[in-house]
Structures are given as structure tokens and as C-alpha cells.
Amino acid sequence: xxxxxxxxxxxxxxxxxxxxxxxxxxxxxxxxxxxxxxxxxxxxxxxxxxxxxxxxxxxxxxxxxxxxxxxxxxxxxxxxxxxxxxxxxxxxxxxxxxxxxxxxxxxxxxxxxxxxxxxxxxxxxxxxxxxxxxxxxxxxxxxxxxxxxxxxxxxxxxxxxxxxxxxxxxxxxxxxxxxxxxxxxxxxxxxxxxxxxxxxxxxxxxxxxxxxxxxxxxxxxxxxxxxxxxxxxx
Length: 234
Hints:
mainly alpha
């Protein structure tokens, strides 16, 4: 009897389903991972129906534009590069579509992880599947917080847009940024490439942490109004 404050069970309907911030992160970076997987697949298709040199090969061997990325290494269990490339394009497209539409589903992150592993196995490179796995891990096990989000959660939530921008800048700077630099000014320094890699993946991980913090705060807001120090923007 009585209305009063409801406990965690009142939010069980939304438990495990990413909030708006998380869906945005997974959707945007999932599509970028898918596009990179398609790029690997196109390089393999152009090599034709030949066997790769081994399980690990280059998607764009001898292509000057991709020299800075070491020809885009990939792994495949398919002994035919044409078939591997077609499979990479198809799986990458599924991964991108699922990243955008599937995160509201109960097993959304799990299937995203499965598609990422499949993309790795059919020749979609190493970076795109790794990014997919990171996104799947970040979006997993989202539920109602056991207690009110503290200062760390609020601080993480506040840096969400900056972390998102940094991760996006790093990823786009890596691909197609380094390819464009290679074509226009010559190969960029290794320090630039590794710096962009760190910015891309570090930014994504920080963005996921910030998005999780926002989800916790939004979940808690269902029963307790947000404190004035936290904005209401998604």
C-alpha cells in the first residue's frame, strides 16, 4: 500500500536495454566498423578467386594508398579471396544494421559480439571486429543501479560528448584519414598512425564508460529526480 518511492523492481522492464546515449554510441561506431569491414571485403574481391597466402593475409596488397596500414591485414578461414570478400561485405552489412537496430533487444550485445567474431573469421580485418567486440562489451549488462550514481558517474556522464568526439575523430583520422594523407602528402609518421589508433579505441572505450554512466543516471531518474548539476541532454 502507499505510493512512495519504488524500488529497483519498478525499472525491471528496461533492465538490460541500453539507453539513448548507449544506442547512439553503438549505432555510430558500429556503422563505422561495418564500413571498414566492407572496405576489407572489397579489397579481397578485387584479388579474385585465388587462395590467400595463409590464414593471415593483406586485403590490399601492393596498393600504395593502404601501405601506411600495412595493406590492411586480415584473417580468413575461407580458402578463396573472392568468397572471403563477399562474405566480409555481407557480414559487415549485417553487423552495421544490427548495431543500429538491435540494441533494444534482450540479446542485442551478444549477437553483436557473435557477428564481430564472424567478421573476423571471414576476412573483415582485425580492427573492425575488435571495435564490434568492444561495443558489445560496453553495451552488455545494463540494469538498474543498486544505489544512487555518485560523483564518478556524474563526471563520466559530463565528458560523454567530448569522448564521443575524440573517438570519432581518431577513427575517421585512421580510416580514411591516413589513406588520404598517404595519397596527398605521402606516408604519415608511424607516431601519427599509432596516436590515431590510441585516440580511436581509447575514445570509444571512454565514450562507452560515459554512456553507461548516463544510462545509470537516467535509470535512477525514473524514481529519483536528477540533481541540478547534471544536464538533461541525451
